[in-house]
From TrEMBL:
Residues 158-260 form the Pseudouridine synthase I TruA alpha/beta domain. It is an enzyme of class 5 (isomerase). This is tRNA pseudouridine synthase A. Gene3D superfamilies: Pseudouridine synthase I, catalytic domain, C-terminal subdomain, Pseudouridine synthase I, catalytic domain, N-terminal subdomain. The keyword Transport does not apply. It comes from Phytomonospora endophytica.
Length: 281
């Protein structure tokens, strides 16, 4: 928590961020590597000085993209007021940030808002091309080229069996003290008008590498190496399955993060998110 005297001197900003993850070592700051958080935080420092807090909705891995990332930062209130409005701040951030990361919206917000713990759902899309000739050159950074034809109907059938709240330990890189129980609300597989296959994935939260592992399992079903009931059978595992290959990062994009509409909802959601989840039997 921010101390009262510090809170009185700062304003909380909500930022929407988009980035091409190709040349980043993920979101999270690293002392010797280029990261999205490092670039955005440095840009904020140019305008407001070091943020008192800087929190993101979800840390994306190296190579993963975003068009709907959300973060919040507590910055010097006087320096915010001196910027002469949100449009001016966006214009100045445009000039500071490198071309592969953009802040697309910024606005003051109540301190009850927490980009991470107030989130209701996170939505990702994974794009795949199974065209014989590969991937359109303009898609090469955000689309996986798969060298076998994929049966979209079989992938969709397998995906439907994974919906709901389960222990996804077989699909996660487990972290000390963290649960692998997640509530998967969407896992759709479809072929878009441009010919690409899109795997749309939504949940209130994901464990490490979960989305890319789910895609990896669906790819094995789609190209005929596994049956459609194989992914759901993995839910009985209590440890990560070595049979599941993690799909490459560059096909994955964070497209949206959902939040309650007001401060009361943010507080309630924060309390729910911080509880350790268990499966009711």
């Amino acid at each position: 928590m921010t101390a009262p005297e510090t809170a009185a001197e700062t304003v909380r900003l909500r930022l929407s961020v988009s980035y091409d993850g190709t040349d980043f070592h993920g979101w999270a700051p690293q002392p010797s590597s280029r990261t999205v958080a490092g670039e955005v935080r440095t840009a904020l420092e140019h305008l407001f000085g070091p943020p008192a807090t800087f929190v993101v909705a979800g840390r994306t891995d190296a190579g993963v993209h975003a068009v709907g990332q959300v973060c919040h930062a507590d910055v010097d209130a006087a320096r915010w007021a001196a910027q002469d409005g949100e449009r001016k701040v966006l214009w100045r951030l445009r000039g500071i940030l490198p071309p592969d990361v953009r802040v697309t919206a910024v606005a003051p917000i109540d301190r009850a808002f927490d980009a991470r713990f107030s989130a209701l759902a996170r939505h990702y899309e994974y794009r795949i091309s199974d065209a014989t000739w590969g991937v359109e050159p303009l898609w090469r950074r955000d689309t996986l080229a798969w060298n076998r034809p994929l049966d979209v109907a079989e992938m969709a059938r397998a995906a439907a069996t994974l919906l709901g709240e389960h222990d996804f330990a077989a699909f996660c890189k487990k972290r000390e003290g963290a649960t692998t129980i997640r509530a998967l609300s969407r896992l759709d597989v479809s072929r878009a008008a441009d010919g690409r296959i899109v795997v749309a994935v939504s949940a209130d939260a994901f464990c490490h590498s979960m989305v890319r592992s789910l895609v990896g399992a669906l790819l094995a079903v789609g190209d005929g190496r596994r049956e459609a009931d194989w992914p759901v059978r993995l839910l009985s595992r209590t440890e990560r399955s070595s049979e599941v290959v993690v799909a490459p990062a560059h096909g994955l994009t964070l497209v949206r993060v959902d939040y309650p509409a007001d401060a009361a909802g943010w507080v309630a959601r924060d309390e729910t998110t911080r509880r350790v989840r268990t499966l009711e039997r």
